[in-house]
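ugh ok so i messed up the first submission bc i forgot one of the chains. this is the corrected input, ALL of the components this time, i swear. 656 residues overall. if the numbers dont match what u have on ur side tell me asap before i send this to the collaborators (the ones from the other lab, u know who)
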Amino acid sequence: METLLLSIKDVEEALAMEEVIHAVEEGYIAYHEGKVQQPEIVSIEMPQNNGETDIKSCYNQLNERISVKIASGFYDNGKKNDLPTMIGTILLFDGKSGAPLCVMDGSLITGIRTGAAGAISSKLLARKNSKTVAVFGTGGQARMQIYGLCQVMDIEEVRVYGEHRNGLLKYKEDVEANTKVNVILCETPEMAMQDADIAISTTPSKKYFIERSWVRPGLHIVAVGADMAGKNEWDPKIFQGSKIVNDSIAQCVSRGETRNAIVAGVIRENDIYAEIGELLAGEKPLRVSEDEITIFDTTGMGIQDNVTAMIVYEAAKKRGLGSYFEFI
Amino acid sequence: METLLLSIKDVEEALAMEEVIHAVEEGYIAYHEGKVQQPEIVSIEMPQNNGETDIKSCYNQLNERISVKIASGFYDNGKKNDLPTMIGTILLFDGKSGAPLCVMDGSLITGIRTGAAGAISSKLLARKNSKTVAVFGTGGQARMQIYGLCQVMDIEEVRVYGEHRNGLLKYKEDVEANTKVNVILCETPEMAMQDADIAISTTPSKKYFIERSWVRPGLHIVAVGADMAGKNEWDPKIFQGSKIVNDSIAQCVSRGETRNAIVAGVIRENDIYAEIGELLAGEKPLRVSEDEITIFDTTGMGIQDNVTAMIVYEAAKKRGLGSYFEFI
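and heres the new structure output, hopefully the right one now
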């Protein structure tokens, strides 16, 4: 049988943020409805090489596909070789026969499906007239969050904070070229938070640098960076009294920003308001006042990879992208 | 960068049982010495399609490679399509950069590395003059166990029991064509056990069918079939007083034949004598008498896939097998 192979360029050609947002919404609902098997994330750590590899797998009853994503972060790449820091590979298998249907680059998919997640949360939870967004970090995910958000809201200003001047300049250039927003470079995290309606954190920080006193009423927070125990971007006290939504409660309490608030004793697991699939299914009220602080904590789910890889696979077949190889 | 792609035919060409036995021995020792990260096995079950998928991952410090094997068993394959029941895919990544080095068929590798495991255990634990082997099951693994064993001992007779007459006849034909052994077809499990020096079980049985009263002093047992909770081939009472060796104690007590003996209350985890890596490292005595009953319980480890896939990868590069594809 033939297995489809898709390079990063093929994937880029086949992907559209708008479709991904829609697919991820459906995936979140399927997960909430118990139609998804999503085993625990496998993590391998190689500190001697400043690297880590995660494996996220998923079986989606709705499309009857198994997805397996092997995603690595090797933080000396680029310096000691010419490889990107983040490398990912996604495999799709037929859930009726185990046949390997597709092997594709997974780097872009991780970026875009995470951007889609943030956008979905803002559509549901941010104030409707949100215009100003604080962004922490200047990497790929800091871009994707804005590309996603611009699909669902009329954003006018992005206030970005990052540690490196060159990164900030390049970020401004890219985001302004790809969207209609005006990007303001901020010298401190506090400056970025000024007038923010939505605040998105995408850094690998291990110690929080966003203070509670900078959070104004009505803010919607998208906490992306903390995706494993030991990472922390937000003062845990911000969780107190906020409406906390998780992509997966199981994952966020064990490896997300929510974990930090629980470990700090600020909240208990019971204080988490909902999983995002419950909100999408219309089972609980969304934001109930203009002053409420809402937090979406996302650690990234196999179901997001599953539905996004399926979009890519179907589009690539339709358009004749990629190559074929007979493994069996 | 280029990723090597290897089909099942390429893998077959690159593999030699003798080398695999040697590599698996080194892998077991590396695991015992703490040089291997082997996360928990991920299992996805699709009972509505009579199928299951396991993911075994491993990082081996010695070769600095990450291996990920996605192996499926869909038991209606062949009837409702023309695919094999067992399908596997193995990926190798560079543990220094996360780069995807190779995607290869993994079906043959699972078979051969498991055959190698059984052979290694017999070399260590069976009586030196073992000539007669009882085999339960007539599938690929029942063949591989004998192909492995014949590399390390002078076996004269295989007494095979299986449920289907055609399977038995085909087994005899294949094994006699590929080895010097004489294959005797047995109508009952008890007949297969007569005069056996070594007994190897490779069935998917969920209820034991090999009785304690058939086990004679000095037997070496290789328990392969039971690799997840709910599978059982041997009367748990056989474990009482036997020298029990596991590939991985963690895995065997949670999903191997050893688990059944613990659940039945016949032994406690403390009664397990050793992991096979300890024996290979020379840290504990092997068989101490001609009458001792020894049991090797193997559930299959990521490190076996890792070292076997590396042999294939290196041999394929040397011989120019396979194709290349640029994912990134």
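quick check: Residues 3-109+303-325 of chain B form a domain with the ornithine cyclodeaminase, domain 1 fold (CATH 3.30.1780.10). that seems consistent at least. Chain B has two domains: 3-109+303-325, 118-300.
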